[in-house]
Amino acid sequence: MVSGTFFWLSYDLECRRGGSVEHVEVKGAMGEGGHVIVTAGEHERLRIDPRAVLVLVGNALSRRPTFERVLGRDAQRIFTFVPLSFIARKRVSTRRSA
Asked: What are the helix (H) ranges across the chain?
């Protein structure tokens, strides 16, 4: 059984078969799928969730897409994760105005 997107849980599908459950994140790429963007929440889930699975869809818009299934526990070994963006917050001033 496959359920829909879980916006609050940071994965796309919950797949069940028998007693097995997987939390699946699907990422598509126009090319071979050598790199995809993964959010901080998705990265964390891959790192700590024993049920996490990453499915990469290469050539996603073509008539012959490719699929690669990576267990979350293997993702750190297979991929290099590079920070893509930062949050810039104004610092709170500790000086008093005169």
From this structure: 40-48, 72-78
